[in-house]
What does this fold into?
Amino acid sequence: MKTEATALVLVAALAAMSPVIADEWYDGGDLNDKDNVAWQEAGSDNRLASAANTVAALWNGEYLVPRIQTNITSMDAMKPYAIELMTCIDTATEKGFDGVRFQYSDLAMGCVALMEWTKL
It folds into this structure.
């Protein structure tokens, strides 16, 4: 369990780092400080890894509702949640915003709130 927790902390730390070559599905996400236009232009691997950064940060901070918090026991167990978050953001951004830009973090937290993932 400690190894998985360490891995999740490392994934969250990737958000602050420059892009890297992705070896795992959760590696290389660099959209966490970008906007909706960058999200729309990014490849699916980058979008998924960026969503994983968000889920990992929420898990690490123990902000997730118990049914999700306890389900995430490994990076593989986190993947369905990262996919669901990515899909929500994809859906939210698919029609564009007529030139208005939104930060990824606002879009991600909006999706997390709509999906009722957090205790707050």
In short: The chain is about 60% helix and 0% strand. The chain has one domain: 2-114. The CA atoms of residues 5 and 60 lie 7 Å apart.
